[in-house]
């Protein structure tokens, strides 16, 4: 692995075709088998197509390579077989996993990983969920530093590769991390632990360059809801022009203008629903502050207060909802107790220094629609009232990082308490970045150890930065 450029060389399609023709000229099955062992090539009828490049046009199956291949191999054949994860550790891992409360649409992990070989019969989906959701929190205390690096790098790779929208720089990062993983395995566990799937993973970046994000040719793992209603490939042309235009305009609006909450969004509010209710007085005051910050050139006030020139009256009347659906994703709230597991969300805020931006976790209390008459128009705003968690100190927050590099931290630790109510509790639903799974976590086994909230991001169906 010293210098990839010396050995990581793509096969020549012309030479491959010539070798395939040589295979056809073999006289017996035994001769053909010997030829394959030496050259690794067989004839395929598809090679009769002169334009078909069998090297570039064959893609790596991410489902089998990443999840049924590498994830399973690292866990079972390295960590378990090499006694990094003992039976006692597996029992502790299972106990911690039982504390996770996942939204119903994420599926479930089998409940007895400590029995038999452990992790038996996991599907690709379950391996994906295990590494993206459970692994960092449940494995960290049972792994030495070298294996924490393997874990952290692999979780980051999976996070990037299962996204719907992937930037080229992210793909390069994923490729570099895969190389680091293979080097770590070779260095600490020997060349015998380097499998074909580990080698094939180094081609995933090239496959993505040619065919787009991995989900586009791996529907078994992530699913492609966008195409579900289209009966055939030819029907792709049936996408209405207005849908494409609306998507383009929404994208431009997000990039070029501040979000107020009255923009169109491709979603709906769901029950439980309460119409024309009065907001609590404290929330009503925060709503007026929200409007003042959002429309800086306008003046807002309550009814029956000082009648300032050109001021806008904010009526205390709103429609409140317990859930919101955007595409195939449903966000719950504390007001919808059956859906409280999907009420934990992330959003970005500008820090107090006025320059840096940070992502904050919080819990949605409820969604609401509120209308205000402004500039001769009645504007309906789609908003969420969210309580935000307090950050832990930097050392604790980035506890799951490698070599004190915060960029390697896939899961953060936050205080298990909320900020006091403020104007930031009300945000447009357009500003919700995605969901996370909260899990209580202690950095040590001491009885008096402080309990934090582990914030585990969930890859959103529509990935936003």
UniProtKB/TrEMBL annotation:
Top-rank taxon: Eukaryota
Record protein name field: Transposase domain-containing protein
Organism: Rhizophagus clarus
Source lineage: Eukaryota, Fungi, Fungi incertae sedis, Mucoromycota, Glomeromycotina
């Amino acid at each position: 692995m010293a210098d990839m450029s010396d050995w990581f060389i793509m096969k020549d399609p012309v030479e491959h075709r010539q070798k395939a023709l040589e295979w056809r000229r073999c006289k017996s099955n035994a001769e053909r088998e010997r030829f394959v062992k030496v050259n690794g090539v067989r004839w395929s009828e598809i090679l009769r197509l002169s334009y078909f490049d069998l090297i570039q046009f064959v893609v790596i199956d991410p489902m089998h390579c990443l999840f049924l291949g590498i994830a399973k191999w690292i866990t079972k054949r390295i960590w378990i077989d090499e006694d990094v994860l003992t039976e006692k550790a597996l029992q502790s891992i299972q106990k911690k996993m039982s504390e996770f409360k996942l939204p119903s649409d994420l599926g479930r992990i089998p409940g007895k990983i400590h029995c038999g070989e452990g992790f038996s019969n996991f599907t690709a989906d379950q391996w994906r969920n295990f590494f993206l959701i459970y692994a960092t929190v449940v494995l960290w205390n049972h792994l030495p530093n070298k294996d924490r690096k393997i874990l952290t790098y692999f979780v980051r790779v999976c996070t990037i590769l299962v996204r719907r929208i992937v930037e080229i720089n992210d793909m390069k990062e994923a490729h570099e991390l895969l190389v680091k993983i293979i080097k770590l395995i070779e260095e600490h566990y020997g060349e015998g632990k380097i499998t074909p799937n580990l080698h094939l993973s180094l081609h995933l970046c090239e496959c993505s360059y040619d065919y787009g994000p991995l989900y586009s040719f791996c529907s078994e793992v992530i699913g492609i809801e966008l195409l579900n209603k289209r009966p055939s490939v030819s029907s792709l042309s049936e996408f209405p022009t207005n849908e494409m235009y609306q998507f383009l305009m929404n994208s431009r609006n997000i990039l070029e203008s501040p979000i107020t909450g009255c923009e169109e969004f491709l979603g709906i509010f769901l029950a439980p629903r309460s119409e024309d209710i009065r907001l609590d007085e404290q929330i009503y005051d925060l709503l007026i502050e929200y409007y003042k910050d959002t429309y800086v050139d306008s003046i807002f006030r309550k009814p029956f207060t000082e009648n300032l020139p050109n001021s806008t009256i904010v009526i205390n009347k709103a429609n409140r909802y317990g859930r919101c659906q955007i595409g195939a994703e449903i966000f719950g709230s504390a007001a919808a107790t059956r859906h409280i597991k999907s009420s934990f969300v992330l959003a970005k805020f500008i820090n107090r220094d006025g320059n840096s931006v940070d992502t904050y976790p919080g819990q949605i209390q409820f969604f609401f629609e509120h209308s205000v008459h402004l500039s001769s128009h009645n504007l309906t705003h789609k908003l969420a009232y969210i309580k935000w968690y307090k950050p832990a100190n930097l050392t604790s927050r980035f506890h799951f990082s490698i070599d004190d590099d915060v960029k390697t931290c896939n899961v953060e630790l936050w205080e298990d308490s909320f900020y006091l109510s403020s104007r930031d509790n009300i945000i447009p639903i357009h500003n919700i970045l995605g969901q996370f799974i909260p899990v209580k976590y202690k950095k040590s086994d001491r009885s008096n150890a402080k309990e934090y909230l582990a914030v585990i991001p969930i890859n959103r169906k529509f990935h936003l930065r």
